[in-house]
Design brief:
Blueprint: H1 5-12, H2 27-30, H3 49-59, H4 78-89, H5 94-108, H6 112-126, H7 136-148, H8 156-165, E1 178-180, E2 186-188, E3 196-201, H9 207-218, H10 220-227, E4 231-237, H11 242-247, E5 257-260, H12 265-268, E6 279-283, E7 289-291, H13 296-307
Parallel strand pairs: 3-4, 4-5
Antiparallel strand pairs: 1-2, 3-6, 6-7
Length: about 300
């Protein structure tokens, strides 16, 4: 599935220079377009990018027929429209996103099949560890709706996922935990003093962990911040096979704090929602979460801004 975020930006957030004329459709193509997704038109009077994004995310589904279950079988139309919707969320204001998500799901209640189709899409794209769009802050209002909606037959799983999503939220203080060093000494997250703390949850030898580690090692931003003693990298092995972990110690830079979770409390008590390994958290000097379960690219871009 291709993502058309750039196209959306060009169409909706470029300067207003007049509406483009719709392309003429040949008669034989009209039937194929019966189920095409129709985007709302943003009034020309709205020119500020944020205001345009807010308008679009609010009215995104205005032309969509939630009672027509044929859309469920047309992922090239419906699922692609949903992916583009998430793109718009990322540039709209958060209060408007929360309101838009709940309004959209309210409309989806018109049909049970359609409602469950979209609840599955929300989990697939906003929670699944393999999704590049995973975002707890967007998933939380959806989960809150699932729990309150009379259309939801299942309440236990959404309640469980909501509890996890609300842990270690961006802007809130990260949960403290104790880590153990190779020499057996112990310390805790809150004892680290630095402008930034990067928590790197990993497993020895996993391919994705190797890739992230290589990116962290070669990052100019991280290298600069470490040289200035402004960032600490706390690598945490959350599992229990210490033999493999000890054999892997030499792979880490000496400047990093390499540790393991003795007793596997982080995993067992789900102190952090490690839906996938590796997982990165960036904290500020007060241990408040700046980035949660983030990608290296987002991390690198933000750190460049901090030192720029």
């Amino acid at each position: 599935m291709k993502y058309v975020f750039i196209s959306l930006l060009l169409v909706f957030f470029a300067s207003c220079s007049g509406q483009q004329k719709p392309q003429q459709t040949a008669p034989e193509e009209e039937e194929q377009l019966t189920y095409a997704f129709k985007m709302p038109e943003i009034p020309a009077i709205i020119t500020e990018p944020l205001e345009r994004a807010d308008y679009l995310v609010k009215h995104y589904w205005d032309n969509f027929d939630f009672s027509d279950t044929a859309y469920v079988h047309l992922p090239q139309v419906t699922e692609q429209a949903f992916v583009d919707y998430i793109d718009v969320m990322q540039i709209a204001s958060y209060p408007q996103v929360v309101s838009a998500i709940k309004d959209m799901l309210k409309k989806a209640e018109a049909d049970t099949t359609m409602y469950y189709y979209f609840t599955n899409l929300y989990e697939k794209y906003l929670y699944d560890p393999n999704s590049p769009f995973r975002n707890d802050e967007f998933f939380i209002p959806a989960l809150e709706f699932f729990i309150s909606s009379p259309a939801s037959k299942e309440k236990v799983r959404p309640m469980y996922l909501l509890e996890l999503a609300k842990r270690n939220r961006v802007g809130e203080k990260a949960a403290n935990f104790t880590y153990t060093l190779p020499n057996g000494k112990q310390s805790n997250l809150y004892s680290l003093v630095s402008d930034y703390t990067l928590i790197f949850f990993y497993n020895p030898g996993c391919n994705a962990c190797e890739e992230i580690m290589g990116q962290l090692k070669s990052s100019l931003s991280i290298g600069y911040l470490m040289k200035e003693n402004r960032i600490k990298i706390l690598a945490v092995y959350p599992d229990e096979d210490l033999t493999e972990w000890k054999n892997y110690l030499s792979s880490f830079p000496k400047e990093w704090i390499n540790s393991y979770d003795k007793g596997t409390h982080i995993m067992d008590k789900e102190i952090y929602d490690l839906k996938a390994i590796p997982t990165l958290f960036l904290l500020d000097k007060d241990k408040k979460v700046i980035l949660k379960d983030t990608s290296f690219d987002l991390l690198e871009n933000l750190l460049r801004q901090k030192i720029g």
